[in-house]
């Protein structure tokens, strides 16, 4: 067992949407992309961050007693103000907050401790055909740690899935791939708008997809569908073409946008870059999946 450490921000038990069966999903912190619609903005930066939810605050003042940088202040009406100017994300205020209005996003854990928590539910994986999924952020952004964890999980007899944006070097992908049974591979937008929407060009991601095909690794394409960004005929046609091109792509999952990331951005004190609360036409999207299934010969479904 390795003493390698990983920066993670959540370990979610009893996940049923991150691969087959019942799973435990380990969320790695840090991502090379900056998607305008990201629903996990606390995953962007690799270092720990402070999140503040004003709706949970009871103005008890406990946070101000442990912050030596003047970050938490209360006026005469006990209204709480958080000033992040000199905050070093030490976590003292989060540790004392009774309502978890202040919390830390991100903590360092050893691979050994992560695997121990994952293995606690091994009986459920065995009964359901589940296992461990590594997600993020982007798990390949911490290549040494994620490879060590995936290897340890495989050696413990678990099915391992990895959710990835695919933006990683060939050497990193080759090192991790032997220890991963299934890649949940994000495909976000056509090439001409990909960098504007995600912060990175598409071609390195397509290169990774081609490499996984050459390595014979099973892939499920996971495609977020974002109103006003990528809900175009051209994007759906591109998804269909990729699914048809690669035999190792087993299914395609279309993932309708949800605005969970907006409140998280506010809690992180960051700018909201995308705030479209409109919803996709469910009937039209269902018809789209049926047409895509017919054209590519693979199962295309809404997830």
Care to describe what's here?
The protein is built from eleven helices and 13 strands. With 303 residues, it is α/β, with parallel strands linked by helices. The protein has two domains: 5-46 and 106-302, TIM Barrel (Alpha-Beta Barrel); 49-105, Alpha-Beta Plaits (2-Layer Sandwich), CATH 3.30.70.
User: What is the element string, with H for helices and E for strands?
Assistant: EEEHEEHEEHHEHEHEHHEHEHHE
Quickly name the level 1 CATH class of the largest domain: Alpha Beta
* CATH topology heading of the largest domain: TIM Barrel
CATH homology superfamily name of the largest domain: Aldolase class I
β-strand percent reads: 15-25%
Number of strands: 13
Write out the strand line-up for the largest beta sheet, numbering strands in chain order.
7-1-2-8-9-10-11-12-13
Integer tally of domains: 2
CATH architecture of the largest domain: Alpha-Beta Barrel
Distance between the termini: 36 Å
């Amino acid at each position: 067992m390795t003493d390698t450490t990983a920066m993670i921000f959540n370990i979610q038990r009893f996940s049923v949407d991150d691969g087959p069966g019942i799973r435990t999903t380990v969320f790695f912190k840090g991502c090379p992309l900056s998607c305008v619609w990201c629903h996990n903005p606390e995953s962007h930066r690799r270092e720990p961050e402070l999140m503040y939810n004003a709706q949970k605050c009871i103005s008890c003042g406990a946070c101000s007693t442990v912050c030596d940088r003047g970050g938490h202040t209360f006026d005469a009406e006990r209204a709480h103000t958080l000033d992040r100017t000199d905050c070093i994300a030490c976590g003292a205020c989060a540790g004392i907050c009774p309502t978890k209005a202040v919390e830390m996003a991100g903590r360092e854990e050893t691979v050994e401790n992560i695997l121990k928590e994952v293995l606690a539910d091994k009986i459920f994986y065995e009964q359901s055909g589940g296992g461990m999924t590594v997600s993020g952020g982007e798990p390949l952004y911490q290549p040494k740690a994620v490879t060590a964890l995936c290897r340890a999980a495989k050696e413990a007899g678990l099915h391992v899935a990895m959710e990835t944006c695919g933006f990683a070097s060939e050497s990193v992908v080759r090192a991790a791939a032997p220890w991963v049974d299934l890649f949940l591979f994000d495909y976000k937008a056509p090439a001409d708008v990909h960098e504007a929407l995600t912060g990175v060009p598409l071609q390195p991601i397509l290169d990774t997809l081609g490499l996984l095909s050459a390595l014979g690794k099973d892939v499920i394409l996971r495609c977020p569908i974002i109103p006003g960004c990528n809900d175009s005929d051209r994007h759906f046609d591109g998804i269909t073409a990729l699914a048809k091109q690669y035999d190792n792509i087993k299914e395609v999952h279309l993932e309708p946008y949800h605005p969970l990331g907006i409140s998280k951005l506010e809690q992180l004190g960051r700018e909201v870059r995308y705030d479209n609360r409109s919803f996709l036409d469910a009937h039209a999207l269902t018809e789209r999946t049926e047409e895509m299934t017919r054209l590519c010969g693979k199962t295309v479904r809404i997830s």
